Amino acid sequence: MVNNIKEKGQNNDSREKTFKNRINILSFLVLSLFGIVFFRLYFLQVKSYDYYKEQADRQHFFQSTLEPKRGGIFLSEGSGLLPVATNKEMFTAFAVPSILDDESAEVLSYKVSEILDLDREKVYSRLLKKGDAYEPLKRKISEEEVFKIKELDNEGIQLESESWRYYPNNSLAAQVVGFEGYKNDKKSGLYGVEKSYNDLLLGEKGWLKQEKDAGSRWISIGERFISPAQNGNDLVLSLDYAIQFKAELTLKNAIEKHRAEGGRIIVLDPYSGDILAMAQEPTFDLNNFSEVESPSLYMNSSLANVYECGSVFKAFTMVAGLDAGVIEADSTYVDRGEVQISGYTIKNSEEKVYGEQTMTEIIEKSINTGVIYIEQKLGNDKFLDYVEKFGFGKKTGIELTGELNGNISNLKTNRDIEYYTASFGQGITVTPIQLATAYGTLANGGELVKPKIVKSIIDSKGNEKKIEREVIRKVVSQDASNKVGLMLESNVIKGHGKSAGVPGYRVAGKTGTAQISDKEKGGYIEGSTVGSFAGFGPVDKPKFVMLVVIDDPKDVEWAESTAGPVFGEMAKFLFEHYGIKPTEDYTKGELEKFRKSHNYLNFISKEDEKEENEKDEEKDN
Predict the structure, then answer these.
(1) How far apart are CA 296 and CA 319, in angstroms?
(2) CA 187 to CA 198: how far, in whole Å?
(3) Strand 73-77 to strand 234-240: parallel, antiparallel, or no bridges (unpaired)?
(4) What are the chain's domains?
(5) What digits encode the pLDDT tens for the residues 461-495?
(6) Alpha-carbon span 21 to 400, nearest angstrom
(7) Which of 6, 261, 425, 490 could form a disulfide with 310 if both were Cys (CB 3.0 to 4.6 A apart)?
């Protein structure tokens, strides 16, 4: 009896335990299921919210990208602006191969290739791409081509309107402006301002989201969301249209006249640093940039071309000596025609010997041994310091791509001969923009001003931000720059710079003729020269600085016959353009009277002084 009771108790405990186990298992399963559901809901509604929302939106909404309008590029034209880069709606012809059979594709290929002037086989191969709903054939087609494509009235060939970059002045300032093309299948600025300021010009994309029905048709009364595109900024360049146009025309005529390989003209404001003109030959049409023979033509040679500038560099050696106080304006030295150093003999041009000369006559007669004399007085370290302070061997920082440093590394060897040749512009290389900027320092009283190509930026709301003048450093004193300015003026009046003079106006400048280095064989190319003329005007308050460079002229050798006359023609235009009145008449032999009246007695040469004394003696007799 007792055993039966025990067995029943044990059975009850076993059943109760089994029941509890089942309850626990069931509870665990319920909780697990709840956890799985909760985790799934969390994954779907939280972690994957964006993904599924996008999927749902795709079913219920149509979304498109709103492309921004690329900013325009303008030049100053009087009191207004002239567009040199803008946007223009043009058509692209494309095929829809998915709706064409082989027979219709063949027939169509003959018609389309003739209309668009394309290779028939290439057109046919594109028309045969089955399943392809969009196969571009030709972009930026002409109005006549558009008309003829429409006349075909064939859905297999269609037209699409696209916004393209358009350059209304074709080749004007081509290397400065640059152009827009494709980079990694995206439109982008590739050269010039278009590349350097691409991010500012580009703008920001927007989007439009519109509710659609099951047939993918827009619901006019449905929900609509829009984030407008932000158009790119407009850029106003410092280039003056009239000056740029005249510079390009004058340069082109000079290149043709002298059968030269090419050339450059830079005109800048010495106080603000604004580039007023930057002309280059040869050039190209921005609207047909793909037709050039060599991409090297896209490069701005005022920044990317280095050369030995020759005697135009003598002005910097001279002003360094004046600023350091190792010479005075009336200092003299005796020229013996040559300087010997380390087994080398350096001679004057045409092996001339001048005897006793003033500092002004060194500039007027472009005497190599004269600037070597000044370099010796300065010492190598101080000479190098001035060269670097003028910005040589380092980029100017102008906001354009492709600028090179130039090369003055040979001055780090501390070999005297390197310094001697550098004093008259040989053995070191500079870029035209460095040279023009450094001459700006001579013109403005001794400050190295950063050159700039963009004058102001106008955002999509019309707010204008002007680019301020930036002084890099003070290089020489006002007094030293004034004195060298008078020496350069004397050079134009009676030295090698006569061809750059403008009757009635005060012009300062210096010629430079240098051999062209042979990059492959070393040394110099026999019979090949590059001529430069750098200067400014009017001398008392310069309105412009200008550099003219003519590459390898075939008919004459010296810069005074190539670059000098171009400088003179441009200077005359600039005086008239700015409405500057004549100040003096140098054409009637009144040089000494002019000098005396302006207290320039220090700049009368020994020969002039002797001639003046003889005249006085004749009057006394």
Answers:
(1) 36
(2) 10
(3) parallel
(4) 65-233 (3.90.1310.10), 239-283+302-458+467-588 (3.40.710.10), 590-621 (no CATH)
(5) 899 999 999 999 999 999 999 999 999 999 999 89
(6) 81
(7) 425
Beta bridge partners of 338: 347
User: Taking phi first (over 0 means left), then psi (-120 to 50 degrees means alpha), and beta for anything else, what does residue 490 get?
Assistant: alpha
pTM exceeds 0.90? no
| Backbone torsions φ then ψ of 444, nearest 5 degrees | -95, 5
At residue 581, φ and ψ (nearest 5 deg) are: -80, 150
| 133-188 per-position pLDDT tens digit | 788 888 888 889 899 888 888 888 888 887 889 999 999 999 999 999 888 878 89
Single-letter code of the amino acid located at 118: L
Q: Please write the tens of the pLDDT for every residue from 186-203.
A: 889 999 999 999 999 998
Alpha carbons 439 and 445: distance in angstroms, whole number: 10
Looking only at the bridges linking them, the beta strands covering 332-335 and 338-341 are: unpaired
Residue 591 has pLDDT above 60, yes or no: no
Query: What digits encode the pLDDT tens for the residues 400-457?
Result: 999 999 999 999 988 999 999 999 999 999 999 999 999 999 999 999 999 999 999 9
Radius of gyration from C-alpha coordinates of the chain: 38
* Alpha-carbon gap, residue 396 to 389, rounded angstroms: 11
pLDDT digits (tens, 9 = 90+) for 304-352: 999 999 999 999 999 999 999 999 988 999 999 999 988 889 999 888 9
DSSP string, 303-347: HH--B--GGGGHHHHHHHHHHHTSS-TT-EEEE-SEEEETTEEEE
Query: Would you say how long the chain is, in residues?
Result: 621
Is 192:186 a contact under the CB 8 Å cutoff? no
| Sequential DSSP letters for 236-250 | EEEEEHHHHHHHHHH
DSSP code at position 512 = E
Mean of all residue pLDDT scores within the chain = 85
Q: Is the CB of residue 62 less than 8 Å from the CB of residue 210?
A: yes
Buried b (16+ CB within 10 A) or exposed e, 303-314: bbbbbbbbbbbb
Give just the sign of the alpha carbon dihedral 217, 222, 225, 229. Answer: positive
Distance in angstroms between the alpha carbons of the first and the last residue of the chain: 175
* Residue 619 vs residues 594, 608, 613, 614, 616: alpha-carbon distances, Å: 20, 17, 10, 9, 5
Other Cβ atoms less than 10 A from the Cβ of 18: the count is: 10
Name the band, by pLDDT with cuts 50, 70 and 90, for residue 9. Answer: low
Q: Which amino acid is at 499?
A: S
Contact between 158 and 219 (Cβ < 8 Å) = no
- H or E segment and range at residue 66: strand 61-66
Residue 185 structure tokens: 């299948």
Please give the backbone phi and psi of residue 237, each rounded to the nearest 5 degrees, phi first.
Answer: -75, 160
